Input
Amino acid sequence: MHTYRALLIAAPLLALAPAAIAQTAAPAYTPAPVAAPAAAYVLGPNDEIEVKVFGQPDMSYKTRIRADGTITAPYLGTVTAAGKTTGQLSDEMMRTFLRQKILSAPSINIEVTTFASKTVTVLGAVPTAGLYALDQPYSVAAMVAKAGGPRADGANTVILTRANGQVERIALTDAATAATRMVGPGDTVFVPNAEKVYVYGEVNRGGAFPVTPGMTFRQALALAEGPTLAGSTKRIEVRRGGKPLTKPSLDDVVQPEDVLVIKEKWF
Output
């Protein structure tokens, strides 16, 4: 009798146990972060836009925004376009059509056909230097990539000159910075030629090689395809600023314009 009563008491507790375990064991749900949408392009002087009024082909046209930020729109006259997105401008035009009872149900789409008001200049050791439109937000890395990336003789560093004259040096190898530092209208991105280290003497392929951050003379020697059979890695000379270094080592860090000479073995 006592055993039967104990089972009656324990049964509900056993039934609740799995749910309680599941509740305590399940990890808290964390929603995935949602990327913020890119800011819409804001129109400016010299941008060319195409205005399409659906169902009214005679009212559709292309026009360039004047220096004062305005356009002349058929049936509407002078309209301020600069400082607005294409969506804001089309909404304003549709409201005017309704208010003036020109169209009963206007539907307007506006697209930018030439981006000219907001540009960035990319110069230096890139395949396609020139003026690039800021048709969307661009990071320093993205803008260099848009110009074709650094050439083989280009450095992995860019010099960013802001429109206000502020200058900043950014390493493309620092992905966190290069991918998040955004460029703005009037900025100039300059990719300099790579700094060089020179390797001569008893090496298989002497010449000048790009210096990378933290490069050692051993790595520079590897770029020169190593010493010849007659060369000795224990007999090296390093000249810096035209003067020889005292007791140089292949594990020393290279500085730009260093000259490494591999000498012959002593037989």
In short: The first helix runs from residue 2 to 25.
